[in-house]
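Box 3.1 A note on notation
Throughout this textbook, protein chains are presented in two layers. The first layer is the amino acid sequence; the second is a token string describing backbone geometry. Keep the layers aligned when reading.
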Amino acid sequence: MDSKRLKTVSSFLRENDYFADIGCDHGLLALYAFELGIRRMQLIDNKEGPLNQAKTNLAHLADQCDITFTLSDGLTSLKPDIEVIAICGMGGKLISDILKRDLEKAKSLKRLILQPNTQIPDVRKFLSSAGFAIIDEAIVKEKRKIYEIIVARYQDTYGQLSKEDCYFGPRLRTVRSLLFLEKHQKRLAQINKILNEPLSANRYRELFQEKTMLERELTSLKEIENES
């Protein structure tokens, strides 16, 4: 099994990190972490099935790596010396809720590596409101789906993100990525199609505002390309 998405997530790990994968599923991210030289990990999942499968998949690393498997929910049973966590492949609301429940633990970490499947702007908005800085981002395509990865760290005095930064990503906006364009051009086309259908006044207004923001962002990117 190979995953470009999780391989990109692993690229934000460093060799000496003591790392925890929250919602580890079958343990594939841990394999990528091991390939990077990481030898201390905690794998956490709230379901026995995936956790047992992760144990099986990683059994061959038992003599080479210190791996703790924990049946638990969120950050509840996070080992006190963990430095970096990854939360990937969940809905944005669930990721935000996990961090909110153990906010002080999250604030103490060197890095949060987050890959929400949905409600990505809401995750950025939560991070910003809670004092976290977005220090890096990535966008990657796997099996025709485009994913965004957010790397954050608590900084306390970090300013609030704008609505546009929450939507597009403050780091992703600074890179003229073809995937960035593809994702947002596709969303714009989708909105234009929906706006031709019967909608409530509130829904029409929401979509029209999103369309305006998308058009403004994509136009500004074209202007930058023409200047360069």
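The chain is about 45% helix and 25% strand. The chain has a mean pLDDT of 94.
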